[in-house]
Amino acid sequence: MEQAGEDVLVSRDELLAKTHATESQFTRLKGYVRDYLTMEKGKAFLSYRGGYLITVDPAKIAENLTWRLRRIDTELRRLLSGWINPLGEDVRNYEVLAMYQEDIGHMLRVSERMRKASAAMPTPVKGKGKSRRRVAASRS
After folding, report:
1. Structural contact between residues 15 and 52, judged by C-beta atoms closer than 8 angstroms
2. DSSP conformation class of 89
3. Measured between alpha carbons, how far is 28 from 55 in angstroms, rounded to an integer?
4. Which of the two residues, 65 and 131, has the higher pLDDT score?
């Protein structure tokens, strides 16, 4: 996936074909890359615009983080609206559910603060350096 100083977007199918991995193996491989290799290489591994990418580009990383945080925010809201809040006042009779309700509410407030703060910041722009190109995934 890495080529000399360039960000190369590789499709999921292409990665599966190159690694000869099953779906389950591919999922575990992505976790291994994110957990270990990214720190070793000093680069981020992103699921990005329909493919996978290894990069140090702050704009791409910020875009991916924003998207992922929105997904987490949506899931937290659904946990409250679909599982906890329907119980209404009965939630306080179950200590663990009351704790989850309070903590998820806190996470949503933090998420909202981060969203507002990031919206006020300029988009990261990488300094002049080597040009980057996207290589189209081959269809075999």
Report:
1. yes
2. G
3. 20
4. 65
Report how many helices (DSSP H) and strands (DSSP E) the chain contains, helices first: 5, 2
Q: How much helix, strand and coil, in percent to the nearest 5, is found in the chain? A: 65, 10, 25
- Residue 48: Cβ within 10 Å count: 20
Question: Under DSSP, is residue 56 helix (H, G, I), strand (E, B) or coil?
Answer: coil
Cβ neighbours for 86, distance < 8 A, ≥ 6 positions apart: none
The residue count for the chain: 140
The reported pTM is: 0.72
Encode pLDDT of 105-129 as tens digits: 999 999 999 989 888 888 776 555 5
